[in-house]
Amino acid sequence: MTMSTDPIEGVEQPSDSPGTSTRYSKHIILTTYPGQSGIEPVPLEWGAADAKSRGPIVVSRSGNLLKRRNAIGAHGGSYSIYNALAIAAGDLDADFRPDLRNSEPTFNFPWQPAWADKTKIVSLDPYGHDIVNQFKQELEAGWDIRPTMAVTRANMKLAEIAEDVKNGLLEVDGSILVDSSGEVRVTKVAAEPVWYLPGVAERFGVDEGTLRRTLFEHTGGSYPELITRPDLKTFLPPIGGLTVYIFGPPERIADENVKLALRVHDECNGSDVFQSDICTCRPYLAFGIREAVREAQNGGSGVVIYFRKEGRALGEVIKYLVYNARKRGGDTADKYFTRTENIAGVRDMRFQALMPDILHWLGIKKIDRMLSMSNMKHDAIVDTGIKILERIPIPDEMIPSDSRVEIDAKIQSGYFTTGKKLTDEELTQVKGRGWEKWEDIAVSRSTLLFRRCF
């Protein structure tokens, strides 16, 4: 094998490397450096008064843009890897440019002062929904600039909403709640993460250098420019984003003269989609949507924000391992967080410090009814200057029996409640459903009986 190296830019691909594609040159640029020959990043001033003053986010490594990049990472969040796979498979041209005609937002969210405040918004691009208008000249010149936000409208249907209509808890109005089947009209906003690294570091109480080094080390060294390009302050991380669901006219959201009901919800695939009853996630989500619809029907605004933070951002594999440990080790509320800490090292990695950014982007200044019991979410929102007037816990009748372990443990740890907070001793008596009739338990007992007989 022969390999020549360039100490500044990168390495030569091994000459005997199998499957080398002709779409790339043999010279691989592993990283870049500030001041390097030809490196001239497009100016980017986070927190500028408007999009043009701020500048576009350029992250593409395609063609001449490699040396003009002003951000680290890749578009698509957690889907950026699939984009690379499509290129590798030959299904997508590496130099593809999307045709963005007619993709503009269905509602033009008005500019908010927070868009120009680099302390209020540090985890998304406040102009990411409007690049077609704001950077038309650059797009026409062939620059690879892509939206990181999208605004659309849709009809959604939820079985629980149909039940609410049937039970007289909601009324069909033909505008927001379309019919008795539970069909609801909604405006939706999707956002991919775009991090302003100095602001993210400040939110977490660390210096920027520590944040950069930690991100580099613990993503397998995937982003060397976190280390070699301290001049690039923007990072598009490979993580999930968020979706905003707006019930009622979206222009009401920022109007402090109308009431706002808000549910901030973190993803739980098992409950939200498949209705597992080990937690309160889907019931609380359904309750949040109901109250958001109700507030919108009363002349206010209802918002549900859905973050991709599966299993408290620990992931579904970790979550299922914890489920096993809980059920096999005695599922009681006093050990609820210990089971997670034993496997994950922490009880929660959602870190709500970045969550309020989307509220500031929407122009929310006060929340009349916060449909959440989480102390972490409450504190993160209030600490950024948004008022919360009332906190609404999930109604007791909506709590599945097997999720009492979760909810009672969370209340005892600081979650808001209008009900009873159990003592340490009482938590030991809150028990989840066992696995006595399931195969692995049955096999274990049969094996034990067999050993005793012989």
Automatic annotation (TrEMBL):
Keywords: GTP-binding, Hydrolase, Nucleotide-binding. The keyword Nucleotide-binding applies. Residues 1-23 are annotated as: Disordered. Residues 14-23 have a biased composition (Polar residues). GO terms for biological process: riboflavin biosynthetic process. Residues 26-218 form the GTP cyclohydrolase N-terminal domain. It comes from the Eukaryota. InterPro entries: GTP_CH_N, GTP_cyclohydro_II, RibA, RibA-like_sf. GO terms for molecular function: GTP binding; GTP cyclohydrolase II activity. Residues 259-393 form the GTP cyclohydrolase II domain. Belongs to the GTP cyclohydrolase II family. This is GTP cyclohydrolase II. It comes from Penicillium olsonii.
